[in-house]
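Re: the multi-chain job from yesterday

Posting the exact lines I submitted so nobody has to dig through the queue logs.
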Amino acid sequence: MQRYFVSNRQINKGIVEIVDQDFHHIKNVMRMKIAVIVEICDEIQNVYTAKLLEFKKNSVLFSLIDKLEVDVELKTDITIALGLTRTSKIEEVIRRITELGASNFIPVEMNRSVVRLNKNVNYKQNRLEMIVKEASEQSKRTKLMKIHEPIKFNQLLDNIDDYDYLVYAYEDLAKNSKNKFKSIIPSFKNKKVLVIVGPEGGFTTEEVDKLDRLGFISVGLGPRILRLETAPLYIMSAISYELEL
Amino acid sequence: MQRYFVSNRQINKGIVEIVDQDFHHIKNVMRMKIAVIVEICDEIQNVYTAKLLEFKKNSVLFSLIDKLEVDVELKTDITIALGLTRTSKIEEVIRRITELGASNFIPVEMNRSVVRLNKNVNYKQNRLEMIVKEASEQSKRTKLMKIHEPIKFNQLLDNIDDYDYLVYAYEDLAKNSKNKFKSIIPSFKNKKVLVIVGPEGGFTTEEVDKLDRLGFISVGLGPRILRLETAPLYIMSAISYELEL
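And the result, structure tokens for all chains:
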């Protein structure tokens, strides 16, 4: 069944008004007819079945039928902060970590980022949010991952008070036997966790020193060198495996 | 350091002769000079440092210096059999599961595969092998994942005697509490494991019945629906997490 994400102000007395791309999708792509049933997710993770009532000029109305009991969200709030890189890679990571249950994504300019803020960053917030919506609909999530504007490394470090766990993935730890990832994931349950993944060239020593001073836990992701696009998928898969299976 | 995979017959009395694409890469892309040091991996997972000796017309010679002690391979032999699909998706999966340590990849035509054998399959063995080589060099693997020719579902099931564990990822198990994946992965160590991931539309009931009759273990990959491209990454990440961290 098709699933659409709406804001709470689109729902009024049991009627949902859908506009913009979703309206286009319903009318022109899916060519839905009156009385078709879809699923509607609101901002506070309610999921409803809803029946198509009528098409207006620039919108379509559905009436809510039933509230469904669904519980597919990861029981931990994971923020992936990724070294700023090419848009195609960012898009791939966003698509996959949405499926894998992440809550927040922050692109971060680090020393070795090839793409720079205020220079060659080509960052289309709208397009990235569309990718999140599509991936959420397909994976049957009830919550939309939040895409944050790109920031600098130091700005990220200025805003870490809210997190219960601070983690960064560090390649040189790959063969380190004191790897703590497996021992800390079980304690992530119902917590807010920030995981930083470095850019293509890795963190600089200066960045690693800052992270260590701030109490970040460094974790390795196995003995093979993972690409920047693969590391966040490994992290999210490991967290889901540990907490959800 | 650049890493090149060679066959054992390219090595003779401590001299390695590199040809074809790798020769082109060394000469024209990297523009290496005499005495440059690279890493050479042979077919039986030896890794050597080697020094550039001389360029010939269609090849370049290196002399082996030292044998390195490296141990980055996953200690279990994982075969991912994936529902036949579009080449771009196959390529993405191959790139990622190479990084994540898989040993074999088999594309399999299943009932719901959109791409069909002998019809619209567009399968370039050479190109896929190049992707494996590149991903192996980048992730510092010492063994090349083997890419098998696409086969039919029944052909796959005719050749399962060699495996110690037979597993398939089944979406409808997502919310099933009797999920066995977490309890069986620890026993994969030093074993040969076949994991089948269905095509876009999932397995048919008939396929699932066959798998069950043959003793395959069905496993779920968490409560969210994963795309065909994401499921193999989840599986490989979970196995690495459980066995290597």
